[in-house]
Structures are given as C-alpha cells and as structure tokens.
Amino acid sequence: MYSFKIEEGRLRFFDNTKNINDSGFPSLGKIVPSMSKDSVEGIETTILYELSGYSFDEFINVVRRSDFVIQNKAYQTFLLDSAKLVSKALDDDVGLLIVPQNISYLLRDILDRMKHVRPGLKIIYESFRDFDLSKIQINYEKYNITENLKNKMEGIISDAKETGVFRFEEVPKQFKEEVNKGLNMDYRKVRPEYVYGQNVAVMDDALGENVDLQTMIRCIKLFAPAKIEAMNLI
After folding, report:
1. Which of 113, 164, 199, 229 lies 20 to 30 A from 140 at CA?
2. 153 CB-near residues (< 8 Å, 6+ apart)
3. What is the pTM of this model?
4. Percent of the chain's residues with pLDDT above 70
5. Cα–Cα distance, 44 to 65 (Å, whole number)
6. DSSP H helical segments within 90-232, as ranges?
C-alpha cells in the first residue's frame, strides 16, 4: 500500500514505514496493489492498483497535468515497486509494450524504471495519435462501387463517432488509403513486422479511459500478433 496527498495540484507520496497519521494530512489517498482482472475487446486486462481516498477524476486529473520531477524517497520507491508490478503482470514471453500518446507523467516515470527490472522489454511511447474522423475524406464518385459498399463505409464512420472506436478491420479495401490518413497507429514507430507473430502488451493509465486501450488493441489485431496482453495502471 502507498499513501499520498493531493497538495496544491501535485501528488505528495509518503513513506509507509513511518507513522503518517500525525503528518498534518488527516485525509490521505491510498494506492493498493490489486492485480484484478477485467476484459477489453475480449482481451483479459490486468488492473495493477486500486485507488481509495480520492475519486478517480481527482487523481487522474492531477497525474495528467503534473510534471513529476519528484526526488523524494517515497515516490522513487513507489516507482520501482510499480515497475516490478508491471513486470509481474506480463508473461515472460512478452517482448514489446506499447503505450498511447497521452499517458500521464506518472506512468512514464514508472515505465522508465522498467530498464532496471526488465531490461529486455522494448517500450514504444507515443505510438498512437488521437483519431480524427475529419481526416477521412472519401470521394465515392471516383469508385465503381455499389450503394451497399458506400453505406457500409458510412456506417463504420458513424459508429466511430458514437463509440470513439474505429473498426479498421472492416474497412473495404477500396477506402484503405483514405482511412489510413486518420489511422491512430504511428507507423514510424510501430511497424507491422514488430507485431506480426509476436507477443505484445498494451498499457494505459486508467480503466475509466478504455477508449485508448480499445483502439490500441483493435489496431494491433490488424497486424496478427501471436498474443496480446493488456494492462491499466488503475
């Protein structure tokens, strides 16, 4: 268990080996190792920690905007312990971990410690862009297609506007080029050969923000990995 306080818009971690009841902060948050399971896109997803004392929104808003240049021992211990927890959650045969563009500074700090815990693990950062439906501009008149095919494509776009998840695998081949302009995956960093036939993991900050995790899993499935594992920090 790790204790913390949100103080002036930043997280202050406490050393749990000390008596913190008289620290002047009667209302403390707690992050407790959980390793609970959920399912995202049919993939079993491990949630590393359970949060208490603060709401999810209070906590995630702070870690989203805070620059964690924190040198105190309690925070550094939390980071290394968290990296060990990430390694424990991953199967031994996973060699690649992919994370989205907008992860928190907190998760970045944790993953930076992975080089001390699991040096053979390749981590690709900022591998997904925010999906922008406005970039998909299809001139249907230039294609010799049926009305049904056009309606299928429009249905995929319409569903994405509602759900925030784009069904790339269902896009008719005629429209692949236009759709790729709005594709989330950054091919400069994640190439099909990195994923094809490999054991791959994806990770995001929080269970409550699974649109990113859903999108990563859907994109990676396009490249036919041998296995996909998924994790959330909270």
Report:
1. 164
2. 138, 171, 172, 175
3. 0.71
4. 77
5. 29
6. 105-112, 114-117, 147-163, 176-180, 192-195, 210-221
Q: What share of the chain is helix, strand, coil (3-state, %, to 5)?
A: 40, 25, 40
For residues 215 and 190, is the Cβ–Cβ distance under 8 A?
no
**pLDDT of res. 210:** 57
19 Ramachandran zone, left/alpha/beta (phi>0; psi -120 to 50): beta
Return the H-helix or E-strand segment holding 52.
Answer: strand 43-52
pLDDT score recorded for residue 66:
57
CATH 3.40.50 fits 2-129+184-232, yes or no: yes
pLDDT at res. 101: 73
The DSSP 8-state label assigned to residue 132 in this structure reads: -
**Tokens for 150?**
């056009």
* pLDDT tens by residue, 165-210: 667 678 888 887 777 665 555 666 777 678 888 999 999 987 655 5
Q: How remote is the C-alpha of 164 from its chain's centroid?
A: 15
Six-digit token string for 106: 């907190």
The amino acid at 147: E
